Amino acid sequence: MTTHAASTRTRDSRVDQRQDAYQGLLATLRARHDEALAGGSEKARKLHLSRGQLLPRERVRALLDPGSPFFEIGQLAGADLYDGVPPGATMITGVGKVCGRWCMLLVNDATVKGGTMFGMTTKRHTRAQLFAWHHRLPCITMVQSGGGFLPDLANIFPDEGQAGSIMYNQVKMSAEGIAQIALVHGPSTAGGAYIPALCDEVVIIRNQGAMFLGSPQLVFAATGEVIDVEPLGGAEMHSRVSGVTDHMAENDEDALAITRRIVDHLGEPPRLRWTRAEPKPPLHDPQELTGLAGVGVIEGAGCHDILARLVDGSQFQEFKQLHGETLVCGFAHIEGYEVGIVAGHGELTAQACAKAAHFVQLCGQRDIPLVFLVDSPGFADSGQAGQATVGRHGAKLLNAVANAEVPKFTVITGRAHGAAYHALGGRALKPNALLMWPGARASAQLDAPDDEAGAMNWARHLWCDAIVEPEQTRAVLAQLLDIAGRLPARPTTYGAFRM
After folding, report:
1. Segments in 330-388 forming alpha helices (H)
2. pLDDT at 18 over 70
3. Architecture of domain 39-264
4. Residue 58 CB contacts under 8 Å (≥ 6 apart), including other chains
5. CA distance 471 to 480
6. N or C: which end of the chain has fewer CB within 10 A?
7. How many CB atoms lie within 10 A of CB 100?
8. Does the structural domain 286-484 have CATH classification 3.40.30.120?
9. CA distances from 3 to 11, 341, 463 (A)
């Protein structure tokens, strides 16, 4: 293995400039995270607590195993898109361990607009479901929702990837044996009632949870009939009469304990299909990554210096080191998991694309997961000397990446522009997860403004799954590798390569 020494601090005068710029980005990112973690207004949270309910994130913590990491998908979704709605789009979605098993949690946040669904809520919900479906993760939905936000119905109701897809995904996953479990924590109307009704097992809380297609207020408006919550759709009615619910709990804590027992009886958890090596910290401090990552118009340092702070023991076995130098490929370990890394080191030339396609094929053959560290301004101009075949070799790379049936994780560390974004594991090529560093920029054009190309805009639209601080990248990738490694291996086949 080649151990890469990192001497960027002494040779690159832009380290301090990058670090200074990154501190501002990190402060902004952490402030937005704090908004998402708080949920609704203080008044709304106090009202929620006054009913004897746990706050939504308290429910998450109580359900997860002590010390379990929680990879949150779409924490910044919808930021600044709706009045009075903090980042997160009225729900919480993420993966953590319950009874030693990775599970997807989908949690309505009733402290924000009563858990009402907006367009970005349905997009976040379906993205989390697709992640769960891909990784065959049990889905645990904590329901307390007023249904769809009527003024935003065009973004909730008619199309694929909206509310109807939530229900479709549920029943298809259930048909494949992927457990669907619901807890009804509070009043749940319309779509909020259908979601638990389509689950395999449902827990409802006495004198707190309720499900109905139309609320008591809607019944009165339509018919003039006065009816209370309990006979219309309360826990007693659904547990004793309709049979829609399977377990009746006394309070939030009891419901979460029942849910843990349900998960504990889902059978043997899947085993990791790879042998994990003993993890080793990098020889160089990952906290130095903020001085190496590209930020705005300031280019990042060479990818070897970044790798030296990401991979175990700073050891990286490079593939075709002297050929196609604008893409760096090689094998390494991250927290003990073997990975194949494709790292951007400039524009994508014909030679770089051919090399990377070869390397991706090798990883597909050997069942080695791929990590793309993306920092590229785009493809080389075919008019440049030696680049007449860049289109042909770029097509090979796209073919290889799209068809490689191994776990794939994309981390945009700097620039991801034009077709290079797609070729290096963009969302359309279906990586298991797409992450961005705070200073990353991605767009169709190199000169796109920051408010369009910046990581925050990508996160608010859920074009990426999360913005990850550079020094946290190892831990996040390790969790994602552990989740993906519990799927059976699949053979890789390719379309026709144009030679």
Report:
1. 350-366
2. yes
3. Alpha-Beta Complex (3.90)
4. none
5. 16
6. C
7. 10
8. no
9. 19, 15, 35
